[in-house]
Design goal:
CATH architecture of chain A: Alpha-Beta Barrel
CATH superfamily of chain B: Metal-dependent hydrolases
Structural class of chain A: alpha/beta
Order of helices and strands of chain B: HEHEHHEHEHEHEHEHEHH
Distance between the termini of chain B: 43 Å
Number of helices of chain B: 11
Radius of gyration of chain A: 18 Å
Largest sheet of chain B: 8 strands, parallel
Helix content of chain B: 25-40%
Order of helices and strands of chain A: HEHEHHEEHEHHEHEHEHEHH
Oligomer: heterodimer
Number of domains of chain A: 1
Radius of gyration of chain B: 18 Å
Largest interface: A-B, 58 and 46 residues
Strand content of chain B: 5-15%
Shape of chain B: globular
CATH topology of chain B: TIM Barrel
Strand order of the largest sheet of chain A: 4-5-6-7-8-9
CATH architecture of chain B: Alpha-Beta Barrel
């Protein structure tokens, strides 16, 4: 099935449902959107309009988001990650929608304790990694050990492919997108690992290759183009794509409008907006 | 919760229609219109239909046709479009009363570009020019070829848009221009407006580069929906110096419209940015 056929099928299914707007079966069917890609605290290179947690949560609520996986910008740049993770937990505790996602940096001595605390003490369902910013590759022993330990602890692993388009990054800190070529082999060595890629700018050929990796998932934050989300769902499979905004760095409305533009049929729509993430976290 | 009640982050249909959106940067099949001169553009217009027309409620969309003066790398297409210039205007027939055009100029070939200005601006129906940032037609706008072309465009009253980027990581294309280059060119013609497409991509630098050159306007498309862009642009340039572009369908309505509609700026500023300023440039306000 090609992209156009997929889109037409989706549109036809939606039209049969009686409206261009996707419709749940009844008013209380849908528990709200789950945003799999949110960050808290300050982005160090500029103030963001939504970098106050209260304001961010208010915005997410207004968009129908009832749960958000929230990591910390501090996690990208700090080395005392235990306190950064603790601050994140405390901040998330103020808002029922926010689920804390800790940061682990395997280049730091004693990272194992950070990971163990995320799982056992902070009761986090996952951790977020920043390989480009923190200086390791996916074919490194460090990553392999981390992936294995996270799998054993039952933690979802979110790999941040990039935080910003490489063309617009601050000149003093230009970091390329994470090289995903070694990921298949790394996940083969840790078959129980559950991994999500964040902020990938998906290209069909790359996604098709990545979709062959079991337990690998994607987010929608940078799935651009008028049919970008539909194309991603088609290439990756509807069980593999999770809604994500990359707010507050990116404008959260952008990701939500893109889902609407893609005119997904009700089943894939529900899967992307909520069900895939719930299943991944369970 | 019922998804049928969702607003999806979009303003209401009435609000969108009230903005009277004129898209200054519509890019169906931007690099090559198709071997027959137009079918690629029409296919990409179809791809953008839901976003631009059904959801976005755009009134007008401006695209950048290739007119056979060496802005593509396809000699067969270049010959075809010179022999059959009627292929150029097919998109206007496809969406009647909806499409506006600004021709892609090739500043590397000044005589051909001057001829094209007569053929397409003086004689119509095109309304301005687009200087590309990549491909064989790209030339840095600080080059000595530009003033002669600009003088003729000014004579004809055309809109001038220059592709700009400040690339911080990755490789710039040969012939690419930055907002600083455009500000220098615009300083030579201080009474005429110039549009800085993409606001330089890295918009914090782009806005700074053009803010002291009051005849340069910033166009909003072509980079991720990075939060804070419009707030800074309105603060530094004023809402009169910003025009909306969609970059559809290679970018999305979400990415591009949300930059304006979700920004923390007032409604009057949004109206200016989404349509009024471009209409003013085109002389139709």
């Amino acid at each position: 099935m090609n992209r156009r056929h997929f889109l037409q099928t989706s549109l036809a299914a939606t039209a049969v449902a009686g409206s261009l707007a996707p419709r749940a079966e009844s008013a209380d069917d849908f528990p709200g959107i789950l945003d799999s890609n949110v960050s808290l605290f300050r982005w160090p290179f500029r103030r963001l309009p939504l970098d106050d947690t209260e304001k961010l949560v208010k915005k997410l609520r207004s968009l129908g988001v009832t749960k958000a996986l929230a990591a910390s910008f501090e996690g990208v740049f700090h080395r005392d990650l235990d306190t950064a993770n603790a601050r994140l937990v405390a901040e998330c505790a103020r808002f029922p929608e926010l689920v804390p996602i800790g940061t682990v940096n395997p280049t730091l001595p004693g990272w194992e304790r950070d990971l163990d605390r995320c799982a056992a003490e902070f009761r986090m369902p996952g951790i977020r990694l920043f390989p480009s910013q923190q200086g390791y590759a996916l074919d490194s022993t460090l990553f392999a050990r981390l992936l294995d330990r996270a799998a054993k602890a039952g933690l979802l692993v979110q790999i941040t492919v990039t935080l910003e388009d490489v063309r617009t990054q601050p000149e003093s800190l230009v970091t390329p997108d994470v090289d995903l070529a070694p990921l298949a082999e790394a996940m083969k060595q840790a078959p129980r690992a559950r991994v999500q890629l964040l902020n990938l700018r998906p290209r069909a050929s790359q996604v098709a290759a990545l979709a062959a990796i079991p337990n690998l998932h994607f987010d929608t934050a940078r799935a651009d183009g008028s049919d970008g989300v539909a194309s991603l769902v088609e290439a990756a499979g509807r069980e593999r794509v999770l809604f994500g905004t990359h707010a507050p760095f990116l404008i959260p409305e952008a990701a939500l409008i893109r889902v609407h533009e893609s005119a997904l049929a009700p089943k894939p729509l529900h899967a992307v907006l909520r069900e895939n993430a719930e299943r991944l976290l369970s | 919760m019922d998804l049928a009640d969702f607003h999806w982050g979009l303003p209401s249909r009435e609000q969108l229609e009230g903005y009277r959106i004129w898209d200054s940067y519509f890019t169906p099949s931007h690099g090559h219109p198709g071997k027959d001169g137009y079918s690629g553009v029409l296919a990409e217009m179809d791809r953008a239909r839901r976003s631009a027309l059904e959801l976005g409620r755009f009134e007008k969309l401006c695209w950048f046709p290739h007119v056979g003066i060496g802005t593509t790398s396809d000699p067969a297409f270049e010959s075809l479009v010179r022999a059959k210039p009627e292929t150029v205007t097919k998109p206007m027939e496809y969406w009647p009363d909806r499409m506006l055009g600004m021709i892609q100029l090739n500043a590397n070939d000044v005589p051909a570009s001057l001829d094209a200005l007569d053929r397409w601006l003086r004689d119509g129906p095109m309304l301005g020019v687009y200087f590309p940032g990549g491909g064989p037609g790209a030339l840095n706008c600080a080059h000595a070829n530009f003033p002669r072309l600009v003088e003729r465009i000014i004579d004809l009253g055309g809109v001038i848009m220059q592709h700009t980027w400040f690339i911080t990581g990755g490789n710039p294309s040969p012939g690419m221009s930055t907002p600083s280059d455009l500000a220098k060119l615009a300083a030579k013609f201080p009474d005429y407006p110039f549009v800085c497409a993409h606001a330089g991509g890295e918009w914090e630098k782009g806005i700074r580069a053009v803010r002291d050159q009051p005849n340069v306007l910033a166009e909003t498309s072509g980079f991720d929906a990075t939060a804070g862009f419009l707030e800074m642009a309105v603060r530094e340039l004023g809402p009169e110096r910003i025009i909306f572009g969609s970059h559809l369908p290679s970018r999305s309505l979400g990415t591009e419209l949300a930059k304006v509609t979700a920004a923390e700026i007032d409604e009057e500023a949004k109206r200016k940015i989404l349509g009024e300023n471009f209409r003013r440039l085109l002389g139709t306000a």
